[in-house]
Amino acid sequence: MYNKCLKSVLAGIAIALSGWMYLSAPNPTIGAFLFACGLLSVRIYELNLFTGKIQYMITKEYKWYDYPIFLIGNFVGVMLIASCSIALIREAAIPIATAKAAQPLWMALVKGLGCGALMSLATYKNSPLWMCIPCVMGFILAGFNHCIADAYYFCCAGIISWSFIMTIVGNILGGVMFSKFLAGEQ
Length: 186
Hints:
Layout: H1 2-24, H2 28-44, H3 50-53, H4 66-84, H5 87-102, H6 105-123, H7 132-141, H8 147-157, H9 163-183
Helix pairs in contact: 1-2, 1-4, 1-8, 2-7, 4-8, 5-8, 6-7, 6-9
């Protein structure tokens, strides 16, 4: 249990540090490329990133109570890094978090679905590591919502939004549905 929690917190830290790099980058394309370092770290070190693990709901590889552990652990990691973020990073997060908070709930769901599908593709058990880069760049440049990355932006900006819940739901649905497709299940 301790190892599961620690790997969840470390995954949140990896994604938050990637968010920091994205916010520090000179342009969105370079930032999206750098953001992929977080997912590569998650895959290489086999960390428990919620959006990478939810696809296994259909295979029952994890128990139902593991998913809240992954999600809460990721949030703890995100909050640790957000609390260390410098003013320049916090200022850069405000427009992103404000735009995400202003989305209609249905849009947060749809953008969460898109990200969930790409995360499923990037973290599927047979996916090569290099898939992390186009999938992460794709979800960022398309403006999709990733609940852990968004948690970092919201924490940095000091914003709370109901759309965040729809992003979590969208990430779950997108990840599960796309993994069924990848597995060839009907």
